[in-house]
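<goal> How does this chain fold?
<sample>
Here is the protein in question

***
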Amino acid sequence: MASSQRTIQYTIPGREDFNKLSDEQKTRVGEAFDLFDSNKDGLLSYEEFRFVLRALGFELPKHQTFDLVIRHGQKPANWPLDQECPPVYRLFNLPTVQALAGTLIRQRDPKEELRRAFRLFDIDGKGMITQDDLRRVSKQVGNNIPDADITAMIEEFDASGKGGVDEDEFLRLMMSKK
């Protein structure tokens, strides 16, 4: 009787995209890996890997994450050589996570990333960032910006004078910084 079991082949992802990231992006990937490597063995479990992806801003569907596990997850060192390792037990080392994260980061749409950032400020969905939104976010990140500075920022970038920076103004402002 022929076996219907599929052999799972581990492949090492290319690091070209990771090498093209900024130093800040590379550091963020390394910090996320270190943070979620709970037992500090230099390897991430499937769940730890998913947490790293989320920390880097990726909410991949389970089937896409599972595909990464199948293609790039490694057998644990103590796994019997003559036995197939189910994907859920496979692990990710730092170079593999760096390579995968690098590819995902480089594939991001910059405008979509900025739209997501806009929504972090505009939590109530009113379609603009107001002085109250800036004040709230600055306090959340521990950077209490003086009210006069917050007022000046909104006034400078609120082209239509509606009392806040809308998404289009935010995108123009942020894209001009790149």
Notes: The beta strands are 43-44, 92-93, 128-129, 165-166. The mean pLDDT is 88. The chain has nine helices and four strands.
